[in-house]
Description:
heterodimer, A: 96 residues, alpha+beta, Folate-binding fold, 4-stranded antiparallel beta sheet, two-stranded antiparallel sheet, 6 strands, 20% helix, 34% strand, globular, B: 416 residues, alpha/beta, FAD/NAD(P)-binding domain, D-Amino Acid Oxidase, Chain A, domain 2, 8-stranded mixed beta sheet, 10 helices, 18 strands, 28% helix
Amino acid sequence: MLIPHPLLGPRDSQEFTYLGDAGLLNRPDGMAAGAEAAFHDYVYLRDNPAGVHRELWFHEQGDRSWLVVTRNTVTHEILGAELAREVALRGQEGGQ
Amino acid sequence: MRFSGFRVFKEAVTGHAGWRPLWRNPDPQPGYDYVIVGGGGHGLATAYYLAKAHGKARIAVLEKGWLGSGNIGRNTTIIRSNYLLPGNQPFYEFSMKLWEGLEQELNFNAMVSQRGILNLIHSDGQRDAFRRRGNAMILSGADAELLDAEQVRAMVPFLNFDNARFPVKGGLLQRRAGTARHDGVAWGYARGADLHGVDLIQNCEVTGFRIANGKVKGVETTRGYIAAGKVGVAVAGSSSRVMAMAGLRLPIESHVLQAFVSEGLKPTIPGVITFGAGHFYVSQSDKGGLVFGGDLDGYNSYAQRGNLPVIEDVAEGGMALMPMIGRARLLRVWGGVMDMSMDGSPIIDRTPVEGLYLNGGWCYGGFKATPASGSAFAHLLATGTPHPTAAAYRLDRFARGHVIDEKGMGAVPNLH
């Protein structure tokens, strides 16, 4: 698989390590009420869809940036990639 | 129709005219007491033990494709009970004992062959870990032997013992482990279930659950609505997709695992050899092909096929361990979809929906568990209480902090 790195262009997926669902960017507030249940869901539960999946890849053998890659889990087709930092900042601004 | 030597002889001299299909192909009834979703090894075994051991009737197995079309037909056929933790090892030893009597039980040749499994040791630390594991196996009633390098050399002289990074220093051997004919296991359980009156309904995909007041009433399928008293889901690989239709999120990711077989060769490898440090394991089928595999591809996938990097990784592991494998030509590569659970251990439990039960999260260890999984799931469905060997496989163990993490990896499903 070739991952279209937003800064470096197409890169072999072998240069990356995989973490999982991009929902992991949205870490629960440990001080909020119900934090225990929220962290259980955050750590253990996954949507695990068959189809389009947004997921975190780390460019370990490259520029060491975290990417959010949009990929189809049925066909392995990669539909896009952006810097996880930008996705996270957008999320903090109430976007997403 | 019973299989026997006499029967084979009789058919041989009468032109093989008397063989009949091994099971009926019935249309679905409007309702059943027990509906098993998934006609793979675990689903078929569950239906068999429900009917045979618990004397239940009005049972159906719903399969979206053909019987045995999932991971029971895509694994590398290894059976073993060499686990460490108390939540796991008694269950797998229970499975091993069922394997040992399976062919007599089913009157079907599942080609169970106890040719042994050898886990290689490369360091003192690993020897200590395997000694501990072996002791845990013996405590559960299984067999285990710790071999030194010379004993391993006598058994499998073709290994590269002096590999610079991973020299072979010994091994943990379970002689009662081995292989079985994967399709034969599915067919044997299917035939046994059918003989006990279970309806095996193929080309019947479950498209939804009918749930009222928190209780399951039946399943919507491509062949119409089927009412059900209890529904047992045994669809490992697709557990998340199916249970999402009941509104559940699971502690599971689906990953692709590739497997490989070479052209047929003369007998070379006496049992199963695992080279965990090099991400490689190998055995030889009765047909002569070297059957081998390695790691997951590592990313969520439902594709039933993987990519080239892992093929290269497995080939490198094979060449590092037994350089002679470089002379064998690869015949086939395929992939299967694994229910990778968050602690590497399975789930056999009821769910928050009353009457709906889940059997899944088998990671890449589902095949060897087939008899015990079916037996334990049938026990749970029939009695409402967990089987003693499967009592730790609860769905809520993650929330309670009672994970069964053999590898101590944490909640990283692609590393289990």
